[in-house]
Amino acid sequence: MAKLSTADLFRPAALDALKAFPVTPGEVALAAYSENLTFKVTDAVDGAVYALRLHRPGHNSLEELQAEHVWVEALSAAEISVPTVVLARDGRAHVDAYVPGLGEHRFASITRWEKGRLLSTILEESADSAVLASHLMRLGSLTARMHDQASSWRLPSRFQRRCLDLAALIGDNPVWGRFEAHPSLSVEEGRRLVQTRERILEAVGTLAPTPSTFSLIHADIHPENVMVDGGRLCILDFDDAAFGWHLYDIAVGLFYLHDRADFAPLQRAYLEGYRAVRGLDERAVALLPFFRLARGLMLIGWFEQRPKLSGTEAFQRLKARVLTQCAALDGRGR
Fold it and tell me: What is the pLDDT of residues 28-50, one digit of tens each?
């Protein structure tokens, strides 16, 4: 028997989950496959378009997924652009979906499909520095508004999301893999990265976790999770949302821009937008390179758990980017 494609393997689960929602499925196409699978669903009756997610087993519990839904709804109530959640007919945000080809159960959820273009695509294709800076400024403002909402929000009872402090990101028992155990690292590269971790821990150890610095964060606001529709920016994919440092949230997006020639003006635009909404002093800004590297080390750890991906061009670019930023931290390079 021929091996099923990813789309064919998971489409039966998507169609099964859709029975619980007020959607009449027409076209059901796989749109993205990473930690979760996302299907683009077009309603056969009214043409409305939805995003159906099949959540990766073992990453978030049902209680954690429910907490994600509650926070997204609270952000929407605060007029922050996030995907619109679609509830099942019985009022649930998540339903069970069985994947027969794998013999596994996944939770499924649906949001309205967001119109526009991904910020990552705009960054790749546009040479207009003023346009790019305006997008980064808006992203900074939007991130600051999210931090304002989370810092002042009274958490509902039984609200469960993980904590992404530095121990969870780059410690001895991280949420993802151990970066220092990645087999592709040379002895010298491994030593450099471990030394960098120690510098990160030393630098950030002076930062106090208070509501003004540490709260619920998205934790994955990189350019592929930002949809741009005219002047509106929408933050996608709250799968990694957790309690964490605001500076880490900022650093995640900036990490992916660091090897661009226009990194400095883009970072200035982002910080200008952030500071227009929420305070951010120079001491905090000085810690951003450490949080950017925490993100890089975490991602190498993510690849360490996925050896089949470690030979890819994406991993090689990541490793080069991290080592370049390590050199910059040491005063060598940009």
Answer: 999 998 879 999 999 999 999 99
To the nearest whole number, what is the mean pLDDT of the chain? 93
| End-to-end Cα spacing for the chain | 53
> Residue 20 and residue 17: Cα distance in Å, rounded?
6
Kind and range of the H or E element at 110?
A: strand 104-112
Residues of each domain in the chain carrying CATH 3.30.200.20: 6-112
pLDDT of residue 314: 87
Which residues make up the CATH 3.90.1200.10 domain(s) of the chain?
A: 117-329
Superfamily, domain 117-329: Aminoglycoside phosphotransferase (APH), C-terminal lobe (3.90.1200.10)
Task: Give the CATH class of 6-112.
Answer: alpha beta
Which whole-number Å values give the CA distances from 63 to 160, 188, 220, 221, 290, in the listed order?
Answer: 6, 42, 20, 23, 32
- Contact indicator for 222, 114 with CB cutoff of 8 Å: no
Q: Give Cβ neighbours of residue 74 (< 8 Å, ≥ 6 apart).
A: 149, 153
Contact between 59 and 24 (Cβ < 8 Å): no
DSSP category for residue 154:
-
Supply the pLDDT for residue 330: 76
